Amino acid sequence: MASGKILVAQGGGPTAVINQSLAGVVLEARRFRAIDQVYGARHGVRGIINEDLVNLTHETSLNLEAVANTPSSALGSTRDKPDDKYCQEIFKVLRAHEIGHFFYIGGNDSSDAVRIVSLEAQKAAYPLRCIHIPKTIDNDLVGSDHTPGFPSAARFVAQAFAGANLDNASLPGVYIGVIMGRHAGFLTAAAALARKFPDDGPHLIYLPERNFSMEQFLVDVKETYQRYGRCVVAVSEGIHDASGTAIASLLAKEVERDAHGNVQLSGTGALADLLCDEIKAKLNIKRVRGDTFGYLQRSFLGCVSDVDQREAREVGEKAVQFAMWGQRDGSVAIKRSGNYAVNYELLALEAVAGKTRVMEDEFINASGTGVTDAFRLYLQPLLGAGMPDAHRLRFSPVAKVLK
Amino acid sequence: MASGKILVAQGGGPTAVINQSLAGVVLEARRFRAIDQVYGARHGVRGIINEDLVNLTHETSLNLEAVANTPSSALGSTRDKPDDKYCQEIFKVLRAHEIGHFFYIGGNDSSDAVRIVSLEAQKAAYPLRCIHIPKTIDNDLVGSDHTPGFPSAARFVAQAFAGANLDNASLPGVYIGVIMGRHAGFLTAAAALARKFPDDGPHLIYLPERNFSMEQFLVDVKETYQRYGRCVVAVSEGIHDASGTAIASLLAKEVERDAHGNVQLSGTGALADLLCDEIKAKLNIKRVRGDTFGYLQRSFLGCVSDVDQREAREVGEKAVQFAMWGQRDGSVAIKRSGNYAVNYELLALEAVAGKTRVMEDEFINASGTGVTDAFRLYLQPLLGAGMPDAHRLRFSPVAKVLK
């Protein structure tokens, strides 16, 4: 029989709704008589190995609800990617504090940490229930219809591009917006939901699921600019050439890599500037502007999908239920059960851990520079209620007098 | 007696509420029996000299209201800065179409165009009433308490920094956000309204009203980082050294200048990247990220101040009333008359045209890296209703067992 203490932590990049899952765990856990204390680790797995723990049972329900509505990881996060040795340290602390259930809210790296800790507990014959709670704006967890955090970030991207398109229509030129997503283009593709009128941007979308060719890019931009007198482009930070080399790294003077060996893509405007410079130099278009959406797309205070909020809460609640009533460890997954409704399942950790989902082929159009109706139908209900709408004047021309 | 035709146009950078002013002009004008037709020029003064005019009297009230709630200039805008000769062309078209009233919604360059056209009409003894309607996210028009468009952009910046601060607290490091504003730091200073708890960012704010020193910047960042273990910085794109040289231009390979001879500051991430590189190189801090807010801060669909919306509508309405009942040309100004209430006045065009307001000294703190309470009191009521709030857990530490 597991002890009455549970531990929850948050890992990886923050999202707009990751605290909903935290509140879901804490509030649901307190409904179980068998649970005495709910601990939280500060800054993810790093907080565990440092024994930097807090007692979340001391939080008021009201403050937990307020924190649930606040973006970014309230417990703090970490970019540490635990290996076997690191996970042994985690397990040592969990055992020392007599933790019976371990919940880790995070992406595919976090689910891998849960998998290894689960194995450590089995090896030691220590009764520990380990549950991974999904979270990532990249939407790249396998086995889920989508992941909490993605819908709100997608909504931000759609609203941003709807505005950028209006701005670009007002002062015509080329506009490039660079979106997060190293391997999966879901978030970049969300820009397509900004379109209302047939000539609205984004006119071109470049995803990491397709090889990027600078020559073809320039041809695409030129054709669009000639057709509409302007061009709005959504680009994933993860675009790469046929050899797999990230376009962003082509010009990086000093390439920064994270603990996973990945080149730093976010927090720099280099890719947008590179693409703008190419267009200015080769296409002789005067007004070319590039924005890198950066951290705003995952942490902007005040742009959230209510669908995402509810689901993020529910995966936290369900995680506790699976832990208390189930007989195995696992990763909570969202399954679409209607248009629009969802159910929750507990997947095996091995089925999720360390794996990366990318956009399915049926979501990407034939040219590779746009999305299909299947993708629009997939994403639309996730964006939530109250999406703002863009309106136009119906121009009624006045006859010229002088010319 | 002026004719029954009026012409309205929009100039300069779009804002979230510039179409409120357009709707205000059109809807109010139609209440006057003396006005037959309301024309609009597409893409500002350029549309006038090209006779690219539309009849706004054909718009439905419902669509005008919908467009009013849509960001960015619905008629299209222009960066053209008319000189005397250009204004003579404008006047020629106005006369040919028997325009009796000319309304131009824009910033200080636009007000200067209105001033010159007004002079042309006087020289020709042509009865033309010319009214400038204020608009600019920079808040840099003299004679106004503030300008329509600024409050909504300020709200975006405050919400963005509130989120960026949470993100930075979750994954500590240095975060730099670069904000629009060449000469006036109002919009950058709005980042200060993101702070709730005493240790919240932005911890440092750099304004174009003060000379920027890279050495002092690095000292400031280092001190803040040592105190809080992290550092959030708001930087105006217009920061410059003691000689007046823009920091952004220090590294620009190929400097782009607009029609006003100004170096391109927006639409590139160069300044943020430069500052991040300096911190990485000199302070040995690992996690340093820079975002350039770019066009999102003026055109994001779905972030607007309701106070700003109402005032932008009113300056459009008042412009028509001043034109129809007043005896002179001028520029509509917002005057604060309570906490919080406003009145509208018509200033002489010469008092506004081509002049630039910068932040008053009483709004900037002694160190030059933050704002005063006077500024907070000034800005707070402009942000409007329903500002989202950030909440924290009240950490209750668990005693260590192993260490």
UniProtKB/TrEMBL annotation, chains A, B:
Q: Does the keyword Lyase apply?
A: no
Keywords in UniProt for this one?
A: Cytoplasm, Glycolysis, Kinase, Magnesium, Metal-binding, Transferase
Q: Which InterPro entries match?
A: ATP_PFK, PFKA, Phosphofructokinase_dom, PKF_sf, PPi-PFK
Binding residues for Mg(2+), per the UniProt record?
108
Q: Where is this site: Important for catalytic activity?
A: 135
User: One MF term in GO for this entry?
Assistant: metal ion binding
Annotated positions for site Important for catalytic activity and substrate specificity:
109
Catalytic residues identified in the record:
138
From the UniProt record, give the pathway where this protein acts: Carbohydrate degradation; glycolysis; D-glyceraldehyde 3-phosphate and glycerone phosphate from D-glucose: step 3/4
* Binding-site positions, substrate: 136-138, 180-182, 237, 295-298
**Domain of life here?**
Bacteria
Principal location: cytoplasm
Instruction: Give the EC class as a word.
Output: transferase
Q: What are the required cofactors?
A: Mg(2+)
**Record's keyword annotation contains Lyase:** no
Q: Which reaction does it catalyse?
A: beta-D-fructose 6-phosphate + diphosphate = beta-D-fructose 1,6-bisphosphate + phosphate + H(+)
Residues involved in diphosphate binding = 13
| Family designation | Belongs to the phosphofructokinase type A (PFKA) family. PPi-dependent PFK group II subfamily. Clade 'B2' sub-subfamily.
| Classification via HAMAP family | Phosphofructokinase_II_B2
| NCBIfam families listed in its UniProt record | PRK14072.1
Q: What is the protein's quaternary organization?
A: Homodimer.
Q: What is this protein called?
A: Pyrophosphate--fructose 6-phosphate 1-phosphotransferase
Species name for this entry? Undibacterium terreum
